[in-house]
Specification:
With 534 residues, this protein is mostly helical. 57% of the residues lie in helices and 4% in strands.
């Protein structure tokens, strides 16, 4: 069977530079983005780790160690994780291009990988804002894609290693090894052996590949376990694992929302079209596989379907449906969307209006996805031309539940100007960016009230035990400053002793927007430095 005709614009090597040029175009403005709450918490725990502390023992949060290790390396500056985002998207692009050379089917087209790479860049750097980038999923996505690419290339040890690294970033990524293990049953797909469907493999090589995959997957786990054992942090790691089982139950605040409301919310982000298109592409791929002569023999096509299904499962099991959760689905969704577009483009060349329809609908979907980011790009242009300061650019980016980095920075500046680096600070609300901007640390591992009061999926007994630890730590080492603000969750009745202590031991010293800055009454009085508003 002759190979299908490939459009010249997508056939040459220069076209493969397109996704990397898009990374520069869409990604450079993201280097100016401020931290969101999650990124600030990752950076705070990473800074404690970088200064000799240990996650969970000296700074508690509910994520796995991998994300804090990354932020310990690159989170010293706000643009560090943003730059890593660009490198992660570039790695995903390379993986998709490599997959396009590994997937050997008679109807495969070399432009599918390129279109998938372009869509991945657009829907990662274009559709996601500062709140949804530099998250755990933006690191898991390239590791997952790279693991699949290496699995299809018959490099089981390296593929398992990448899947294991992903599993050390977030518990939902544990299942990313499944498509990699499926690759162990695939016969060789080297250019001289592309008739994979006519070949068989013995059990011995398959068993060897499975063993190497699992060994590679275990390496990151053993490294983490060994590190925490040496540092004396194994009990805290065990506590994390126990907490993860409860935390994975999902956000109770979303249980009352209907699936329709969640789908509509996803549609407003512009991400819904690629989810629907990829779902149609998966159905077509499954039907094509079932109609083939080797329908029940494992093929690269089935591996790609498994990749999409496992990535979607990682989103669904979290039951939170925030936009950044969908980032892990972006590469396989982009792949099947590209297959759908390629099929409509190449097989219907005699129907010009269909091509126009494909271009029109695709352009509209991309416009919907990119439109919300337009103000950020305009502001970034103003920064680059000197018409806007970086601080003003960051201050214009606000988040959910009243997140405002400008007011947070003002409160942090107030604390920094009126205290020394040795003076402890406690930020009650989930606003960890105040720690970073003030260069101060909490006197307790419970640097935020979010796991204690906000994450109600965690058992109340565990949260009350943490609260008792917090009170003990504050009694042992009272913070000089305490920063609070109104929170979206209800503070439980058993938290009253903390706020009674605040009313008796602290006095309100300043307010910056929603932030209230309290100073300990017993601290030596001295002249206060003021922070300009605005």
């Amino acid at each position: 069977m002759s190979a299908p005709t490939v459009s010249k614009p997508f056939a040459g090597r220069p076209a493969r530079l397109l996704p990397f040029l898009l990374i520069l175009l869409l990604g450079l403005p993201t280097l100016l983005y401020p931290y969101g709450r999650d990124q600030a918490m990752f950076a705070y725990v990473g800074s404690v780790w970088r200064q000799g502390g240990l996650p969970y023992r000296d700074a508690w949060d509910v994520k796995l160690p991998g994300i804090y290790a990354v932020y310990a390396l690159v989170g010293g500056v706000e643009w560090g994780p943003r730059l890593l985002d660009l490198l992660a998207v570039a790695a995903t692009v390379c993986a998709l291009l490599r997959i396009s050379r590994s997937v050997a089917r008679e109807d495969a087209r070399p432009d599918v990988g390129l279109v998938a790479a372009v869509l991945t860049v657009i829907y990662t750097l274009g559709a996601c804002d500062f709140w949804n980038l530099a998250q755990t999923e933006t690191l898991i996505a390239p590791l997952f894609a790279g693991a699949v690419a290496l699995g299809l290339a018959r490099r089981p040890l390296a593929a398992g290693l990448l899947a294991g690294c992903a599993a050390m970033i977030k518990t939902t990524a544990v299942v990313s090894i499944i498509p990699v293990i499926l690759c162990c049953w695939l016969p060789p797909v080297a250019p001289a052996q592309r008739q994979w469907a006519d070949r068989t493999t013995s059990a011995a090589p398959i068993a060897g590949r499975v063993i190497r995959t699992v060994l590679g997957w275990l390496v990151p786990l053993l490294v983490v376990l060994g590190y925490f054992v040496v540092r004396g942090g194994l009990p805290y790691l065990v506590e994390l694992v126990a907490t993860q089982r409860e935390y994975a139950a999902g956000d109770p605040r979303l249980t009352g929302q209907s699936p329709v409301a969640l789908v509509v919310g996803l549609g407003l982000t512009g991400y819904l079209p690629v989810v629907i298109a990829s779902g149609v592409g998966v159905l077509i791929a499954v039907v094509r596989q079932l109609r083939s002569a080797q329908r029940w023999r494992l093929s690269p096509g089935w591996v790609m379907v498994a990749w999409w299904g496992i990535a979607l499962a990682q989103v669904v099991v979290q039951r939170r449906f925030y936009l950044y959760h969908w980032v892990v689905l972006t590469p396989p969704a982009a792949w099947f969307t590209a297959e759908l577009l390629a099929a409509a483009w190449h097989r219907r060349q005699r129907v010009p209006w269909l091509r126009c329809l494909v271009v029109g609908v695709g352009a509209l979907a991309l416009a919907v996805a990119l439109a919300p980011r337009w103000p950020s790009w305009v502001w970034a242009g103003a920064v680059m031309t000197g018409k806007m300061r970086v601080a003003e650019f960051r201050g214009r980016h606000t988040g959910v539940f009243g997140y405002n980095v400008q007011f947070a920075r003002q409160a942090a500046t107030h604390v920094r100007l009126n205290s020394t680096p040795q003076d402890p600070l406690l930020v009650l609300a989930f606003e960890p960016e105040v720690y970073l901007y003030s260069d101060r640390r909490a006197p307790t591992r419970h640097a935020s009230e979010a796991p204690l009061f906000g994450e109600t999926s965690i058992s109340e007994d565990r949260r009350q035990a943490w609260f008792a630890q917090l009170l003990s730590d504050l009694k042992r080492r009272p913070p000089l400053y305490l920063v609070d603000r109104d929170v979206p969750h209800e503070r439980p009745g058993w938290s009253r002793p903390l706020f009674d202590r605040i009313r008796s031991d602290y006095q309100l010293e300043a307010e910056y927007g929603p932030f209230r800055v309290y100073r300990h009454r017993a601290s030596p009085s001295r002249r206060r430095a003021s922070v300009p508003r605005g």
